[in-house]
Backbone:
């Protein structure tokens, strides 16, 4: 039987001088197709990948700051009286824009990082909680219902250079961060559970600033401050030889990519946090070679089940691995004739569409043909 491989569908150029840095699929299903967003320069485009193969640009946002340059985007939804579909984007200016796609306007802006933001991750069980990774050597946890900063992961045992990536584990109990210092760290959210609960309490009580409420005497009372978490559960600098620009959980395991032409699938062993700041133990389960990826900001994508991994390089090639097979050889290779650098890859929720954002200003689409019954 012929393998159900990805076939090229379309390439779309967003605009002149708009190198695309990030791509993210909306996790909610739509009868029209799969919505996704691409970002670059100071522009964010919401696109629809129709089942017919057609791709249309549904909405475009232009940031008011001409010096903004978006590096990342992510989707979330908040269910209160009704489901609100939100698109998050950030970059050079260090401000997280929360865009209400349903209403077509910026809901709020999250300010607190001291420098550029390179990655945004959404809590897997609570869409109002997001994490960000920044050039200011920290990762931060936010409640986007009010814009309150809940926790800061940095300090004495934190990273010593820009944090390039952050991701939640499947249960929303941990964060993994990757940085230019070659370090990968795992942080437990249990240390800031009190702040998380109080941030929700503030949101439910329509706090004017996200941190305080009005008591019975009509005086404003601050009920929490952001938690400063300095001690990670796990820390190592030995997995990669250079910058680590992408790290994501696969169950209790982790996939990470450095700028040394390889992606590693490994298991952390953090039996004794007291060993910090020395290196904790780990077991490498698979090594996925990715030629021509010796520069950072080339980030891989995982499908919803986190069994397929797609990563592009600076020569216009995209390699796909089945993580479960633990084989170094990719199960599929895709090539773009113009050979543009691929900044990020993303799978649709059903795993049948792959979008690659490129620094040539285009996004490229591939689809799996439907199998005949």
Residues:
């Amino acid at each position: 039987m012929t393998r159900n491989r990805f076939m090229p569908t379309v390439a779309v150029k967003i605009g002149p001088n708009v190198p695309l840095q990030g791509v993210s699929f909306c996790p909610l299903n739509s009868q029209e197709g799969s919505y996704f967003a691409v970002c670059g320069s100071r522009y964010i485009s919401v696109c629809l990948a129709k089942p017919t193969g057609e791709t249309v640009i549904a909405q475009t946002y232009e940031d008011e700051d001409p010096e903004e340059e978006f590096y990342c985007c992510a989707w979330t939804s908040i269910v209160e009286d009704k489901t609100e579909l939100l698109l998050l984007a950030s970059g050079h200016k260090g401000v997280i824009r929360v865009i209400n796609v349903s209403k077509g306007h910026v809901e709020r802006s999250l300010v607190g990082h001291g420098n550029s933001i390179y990655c945004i991750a959404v809590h897997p069980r609570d869409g109002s909680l997001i994490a960000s990774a920044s050039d200011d050597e920290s990762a931060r946890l936010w409640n986007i219902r009010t814009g309150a900063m809940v926790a800061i992961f940095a300090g004495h045992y934190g990273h010593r250079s820009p944090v390039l990536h952050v991701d939640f584990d499947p249960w929303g109990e941990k964060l993994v961060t990757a940085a230019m210092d070659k370090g990968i760290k795992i942080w437990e959210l249990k240390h800031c559970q009190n702040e998380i609960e109080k941030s929700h309490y503030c949101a439910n009580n329509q706090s004017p600033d996200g941190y305080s409420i009005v008591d019975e005497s009509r005086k404003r009372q601050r009920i929490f401050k952001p938690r400063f978490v300095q001690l990670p559960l796990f820390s190592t600098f030995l997995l990669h030889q250079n910058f680590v620009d992408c790290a994501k959980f696969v169950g209790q395991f982790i996939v990470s990519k450095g700028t040394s032409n390889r992606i590693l699938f490994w298991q952390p062993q953090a039996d004794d946090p007291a060993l910090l700041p020395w290196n904790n133990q780990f077991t490498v389960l698979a090594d996925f070679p990715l030629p021509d990826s010796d520069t950072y900001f080339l980030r891989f994508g995982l499908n919803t089940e986190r069994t397929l991994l797609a990563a592009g390089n600076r020569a216009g090639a995209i390699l796909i691995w089945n993580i479960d097979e633990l084989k170094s050889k990719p199960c599929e290779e895709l090539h773009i004739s113009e050979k543009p650098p691929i900044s990020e890859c993303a799978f649709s929720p059903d795993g049948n569409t792959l979008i690659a954002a490129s620094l040539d200003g285009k996004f490229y689409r591939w689809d799996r043909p439907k199998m005949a019954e």
